Amino acid sequence: MRTTHDQMTSPIRIVHYVNQFFGGIGGEERADTELLIREHPVGPGVGIARALGERGRIVATLIGGDNYFTERMDVARSAALEAIERYRPDVVIAGPAFNAGRYGMACGEVCKAVTETLRIPSVTAMSPHNPAVSLYRRSTYILPTGESAASMPHILPRLTAFAHRLAIGDAIGPAEREGYMPRGIRGIILDERSAAQRAAEMLKAKLTGEPYQTEIPVEVFQPVSPAAPLQDLTTATIALVTTSGLVPRGNPDGFKSMNESRWATYPVKHLDALAPDEWEPIHGGYDARFARENPNRVVPLDVLRELENEGVIGRLHADLIVTVGVGTPVEVCQRMGEEIVDELHRANVSAAIFTSN
Amino acid sequence: MRETMRLEMGTFPITEATFGPRTELDGTRLVIDHDELAALVLENGFFRRVRIEIVSPGESARIIHLLDAIEPRIKVEGPGETFPGFLGSVETVGEGRTHRLGGVAVMQSAEIPGRGKGGLLMVREGIVDMTGPGAAYSPFSQTINIVLTLELEPNFSDEEYDRTIRLAGLKAARYLARTTVDRRAPQYRTYDLTISCPALPRVVYVHQIQSQGTFARTFFYGKPLDHLIPTLVHPNELLDGALVSGNYAYQSMKTPTWLHGNNPVIEQLYDRHGRDWNFVGVILSRGHFYGISEKQHSANHVAKLARMWNADGAMITWEGGGNSIIEAMLTIQALERAGIKTTAISYELGGADGTGTPLLLYSVPEADALVSCGTYERPLRLPSVKRVVGGRTIRCDPAKGGHHLPAHQSLQLDTSLQMYCGTNQVGFGRRRGIDF
Predict the structure, then answer these.
(1) pTM for the full predicted model
(2) Per residue in A91-105, pLDDT tens?
(3) Same domain, A172 and A237
(4) By residue range, what is the domain housing residue A9?
(5) What's the complex ipTM?
(6) Do B427 and A221 touch (CB under 8 A)?
(7) B371: which chain A residues are within 8 Å (Cβ-Cβ)?
(8) Residue B116 — pLDDT band, cuts 50, 70, 90?
(9) CATH of the domain at A86
């Protein structure tokens, strides 16, 4: 970690990664070129060095062939990391890669590796359409460029300025203000204007046909298609699964009443019904009086046991599976759902009745 | 031609509050006769004791066990009374003249017994920090707060505590506002929906509130809105206290009475009335219906009312959390499908570190103009404070029986769910989410 004094005075050290083409080695015929090191700026690095002036220098340029990097990624990544570590840079710049797919991958991979392994900040630049963007935007800063090297003169000063800020430990603000591609992280900031003011301005823009941009992008939810119906209920094992937060009295697993990310199984093998003095709902999102009076209202164990005794269903699964479904992020629900499905598969359960609240 | 509903609001900005021998206004200083106010609060017999404290902006202070926050308001001319249905008849309010003490909130603080029950309908902890990182979560770090800490007589029902605590707060607020009755306010503003430029687009405010039962309820003219079919309301009615909050279920996601009367969205719509648009009125709706057809019905009904009003645009806010976003989203969809351009304010998710997806529990493709008012999902560390008002310990996890933490110490909170009005759902605050 550099000290404040260093940040103010020392020129920064940069390692720059380019492919064989921008490294001046050759075109597609030299795409197998293994990692080369030059201790001076090369290709776009010359422009970076010029933009940087006295503020720092490129201490090494790494040059890798497009095929070498993408087809032998493990080897190439290790070689790059080893070289970069040796030059102790304050920041690593890769590219710009524009819309070159393999080059974009290599830039993304170099940046991801130095940031995650060496904890050195990194930045690259490429077209928003480069397939590497979706793979690496969470792992590094990616500045958008045009589709081809024609946009080189525009991007190099911006790339250099951004790298300099990373090197000196400047706080990087939100993506839309700083001009990098969103990294999949939502930050919370204080805007200059209140939410009501911004909503009014957005409404005015929408009414007058002026451009506006939503602050919360919405995702389209994937519909869930139901499994095929059972052929024969009389041989089926049926499980009860619930997000109603119905737990044994005393809440033995300490479930939270909101935003829970765990689930549990509770044995119900010997029960004919769920007794109100033995079970309680701890869910924090619905009026739980009715479930408290009679827990079978949210988990119909009583009826299923009757159906089992009458031979309508083969067997009721020995365990009740419980979580608390309130304010839980969808991706956490998906993870829990997959885990619960695994559990049910292991127990040879043929179908589940899922109750919410 | 018939008279339009025209409300003149006189504001008496208050810069200081103190206790003194007589309740009165001394310039911008509010003097409170402690004993007289205490007697008024205690007269119903449900409280054993009341402690009245004044908490001012900038103090190293934390207010806990907060219930409602109410702005002192009083009707000085025209029909009805402020907080109709509670302090007066149900005569329609929203015209004549009303006085308010600007920058003041009356708050009740009480530890209502949790009675070991789970479910939604219980009082959860509500915290206001007057300084430090917690201050940005609440508008009440910026107001002079008259806090009534109520010690409850035992063995009353939830419903009795709920009703009597609310009445005590409303009466105290009116009592303090009575100091303005014979005075001329330093500032007057007239609220009137008269249309002078008919060519401008017509805009409605869809105010989706929460009302599910005791401790999670909103009242209109004293009547609970638990089964509300969306209805038309004049914004001036809200300025006169027609909407009163009894919502203490999740204190970050609530709209207290103070904000129903000082709704920043209504302020914006009025500020731009006659310039950017014609503000035509408020549609009051409710979230948290249990079935999808009820949710869809509510959304359809809002859109129908907006169409009958010839609305061109709409702004939506929604109170509470969880499934009530479905009504909000279906309402956006129904409005957009009716050709009414809609923006909405919503809090977002994102998990503890901002990488969780999706940001909303439910959404529709038509929701293309959303304003973020922050999140409750990030951990928050509150520093220690010199003064705690409302009790000694904060109560965490009441659904699990509750455990208590010393309130003056620094607090490491997993979420900001306990920060009073922390998710900013009518958009008073500047906290927002943004991509990094």
Answers:
(1) 0.88
(2) 999 999 999 999 999
(3) no
(4) 4-178
(5) 0.96
(6) no
(7) 195, 198-199, 202, 215-216
(8) low
(9) 3.40.50.2300
